[in-house]
Amino acid sequence: MDLLQPELSKRATQIYRHNLMSVLETALNASNAKFESNDILSRLDVKLHQATSGEEGWDVFALHYKLQAPLNTVIPDAAMAEYLQMFSFLFKVKRVEYSLSTCWGRDMNLVHLISVAWTGTEERPTSALDAAGALVRQMHTIATDFQTQMVSFLDLLKQQALGSDNLPFLTFRLDFNEYYRKSTAPPTN
User: N or C end of the chain: which has fewer CB within 10 A?
Assistant: First the structure.
């Protein structure tokens, strides 16, 4: 998200696919994805939806996985269209989470600076510190609610994908928290 921020903050008409592909390659090289096979990595692509007036890059960006035979016979175009819709929604949710996290970090630094600035004086502006504390509590509540909603969304997605032949593999990929907890759980003796 940090790498995409400068590029996707531009107007949608000012975004170029080759710039986003360069950002994608940089991100892949900086992550564990660089250890995936070249066949998988070469199929990752950037897709830009048709831009309308007033849209930003965030609104038109999507990661696309180019399907080739024999995989494209098993996964129809309709499933890929569903994938693009889900990606767009989840990418917007990720952007909101990223923005909230950035605001949280900035606000936590401000609370610390306010506290340091007023240390040692006779009067502390309790109303400003109280307001900052209230903001911190509200941000914590928002983050907790967001996590709860995301878990509910993943559960709903699992339920809907049970009868579908198209989405079980996507559901597994979306539930990365469960996978992460399993892979990092300490051994029990």
Answer: C
What dihedral do alpha carbons 146, 147, 153, 158 form, nearest 10°?
170
Q: Residue 20: phi, psi to the nearest 5?
A: -70, -35
Task: Using alpha carbons, select from 57, 47, 44 the residue that is nearest to residue 14.
Answer: 57
pTM over 0.90: no
Distance CA 85, CA 91 (A): 10
pLDDT digits (tens, 9 = 90+) for 23-59: 888 988 888 888 888 888 888 888 888 877 788 888 8
Cβ atoms within 10 A of the Cβ of 12, count? Answer: 20
Q: Are the C-beta atoms of 80 and 67 separated by less than 8 Å? A: yes
Contact (CB, 8 A) for 78 and 103: no
Separation CA 147–CA 93 (nearest Å): 11
CB 84 within 8 A of CB 47: yes
